[in-house]
Amino acid sequence: MTVLPETVTSALPIADAWSAETETSPSPSPSDQPQQDQEQIGAGPGAFFAIFVIAVLIAILIFDMVRRLRRMRYRRQARVELAEKYGVVDQEFPEGLDDDDVLLDPFERKKRQIAERDAKFEARAARREAKRTNRG
Known about the structure:
Shape: elongated
Order of helices and strands: HHHH
Structural class: mainly alpha
């Protein structure tokens, strides 16, 4: 058995008084709470209804998006066909719609557009230079 120094033993009655004031009662045993069946545990019909409504709204949004995309594609095709039929140069599709453009990915299509624009710019610059040399 170890002997505690006097300073420690003099503090023990204070600790005992403090621990007596702060004691808590034990928590209730599980038998005091009512038992729930496995059928009673769950989200319930309200949560099912909320998830069902969200799923229906998402399905409606997807259906609407597909419809709008289809409409945009048809309008684009109709605009190109009318421009070709009446000989009108459409600002968006001046040469008409190429089948190659549909198959290209967007990055390749943009590179092709930039190269075509640069070629037009260089041709225009060459024509201007030719006019200047003819004047002088």
